[in-house]
Amino acid sequence: MFRNPPIIGIDIGHHSVKAVVLNPKKEQLELSAFAEITLPSSVINDQHSVNTSALLSAIRKLKKSLPFNARKVVIALPDSAVISKVIQLDTNLSDEEAEFAVTQALSASSPFPVEELSLDFFPLSSDAFVETATTVPFQVFAARKDTIDSRIKALKKAGLHPGVVELQTHALLWLGEYIAERAAMQELWGIVDIGMHCTEFSIKPPGGAAYHREMAFGTSLVSGNMAGGSEEPGGFAPELEQAEVFTKQLADHLKRQFQLYNSTHPRSVLKGIWLCGGGQHVVLEELLARLLGVEASWINPFRYFPCSKKLGQIASNSYYGQYAVAAGLAIRGASQ
Asked: Where is the SHS2 domain (predicted)?
């Protein structure tokens, strides 16, 4: 199922860059290392492109904590940096004709000139359906070339080999699927990623497309010592009253998202949610579960990977939810 060599999942956020290294061993993935480096506030601009020199400096610092033989990298783009569309194409188109049709469809709806975009597309229907249909739905993803190239350039200059660029939501869902398999879970769980400025809810119902919603709500709203933007475990300890207020506000936002999800997926009932991101010190999971009427638990992605005894003692800390995206990316890379 998994192949060598070691895979690095790198999550480039607004406030830090995080890496998780997984080493494929037969039918399992071993945790080799994880690390986080804080970024200057000016690294990522409003168009999601990065300051290559500043990111390069952070990546070089990050590499010092990673295994020497780890070079293969998977990264993610924020969902808000990616155009996602489903379009219908004729079934008899060649690859070149399909690419031209996708380009034409995007040129009519994209806020950016199509020549500035990198494209990826693939059919969504099964072969059996295609045989009897005259058109087939294609999933199309597009992102500004500069958004991708600025990240790739920094990684390559640091001596790494980026091979896959994923959506952040997909990274979280890869992690969720991996955990569900290892824990032999049958119920459907979603993932809530709590960031500084936004919170994202993602879920993959059986047989359906990924469901994702972004809310303009994050931990920066909590007053106190959070102004520095630290996502480090133990870096911020709010008053209990602050945490209760934030948790209730989060519950209100999620209730609206659950209602929207349930209205479109009435047969795929949500059993619980995994919490991740940098908000572990401002969200009370027991209170959140009671307010939402579903189970809620902070996720520690490292709990599901075997590792050395020394590393295992460090990784057993329950507050490592901020590494969820990086862990999902490493799983994605190992599955190729």
From this structure: 7-172
Both tokens of residue 70? Answer: 């780890």
Q: How confident is the model at residue 332 (pLDDT cuts 50, 70, 90)?
A: very high
CB 335 within 8 A of CB 1: yes
Alpha carbons 233 and 288: distance in angstroms, whole number: 20
Q: Could you give the CA distance from residue 10 to residue 12 in angstroms, rounded to a whole number? A: 6
The residue type found at 61 is K
Note if the bond before 5 is cis, omega within 30 degrees. Answer: yes
Per-residue tokens: 34? 């994880």
Residue range 148-169, pLDDT digits in tens: 999 999 999 999 999 999 999 9
Q: Which backbone phi and psi does 330 adopt, to 5 degrees?
A: -65, -40
Give 202 or 315, the one with higher predicted confidence: 202
Sheet hosting strand 135-144, strand order edge to edge: 83-90, 135-144, 117-123
The token duo for 46 is 């409003």
**Which residues are within 8 A (CB) of 290 and not within 5 positions of it... i.e. 6 or more apart?**
none
Whole-angstrom Cα distance, residue 28 to residue 22?
10
Given a contact cutoff of 8 angstroms between Cβ atoms, the answer to whether 321 and 299 are in contact is: yes
> 3-state DSSP call for residue 262?
helix
CA angle 274, 276, 278 (to 5 degrees): 155
Q: Are 58 and 39 in contact (CB under 8 A)?
A: yes
As beta bridge partners, residue 28 has: 25
CA distances for 136 relative to 106, 122, 132, 243, 330, angstroms: 17, 10, 10, 48, 32
Instruction: Name the DSSP letter for residue 29.
Output: E
> Across the beta sheet with 72-77, what order do the strands follow?
28-38, 16-25, 7-12, 72-77, 161-167
**Cβ–Cβ under 8 Å, residues 31 and 311:** yes
How far is 271 from 92, CA to CA, in rounded Å? Answer: 42
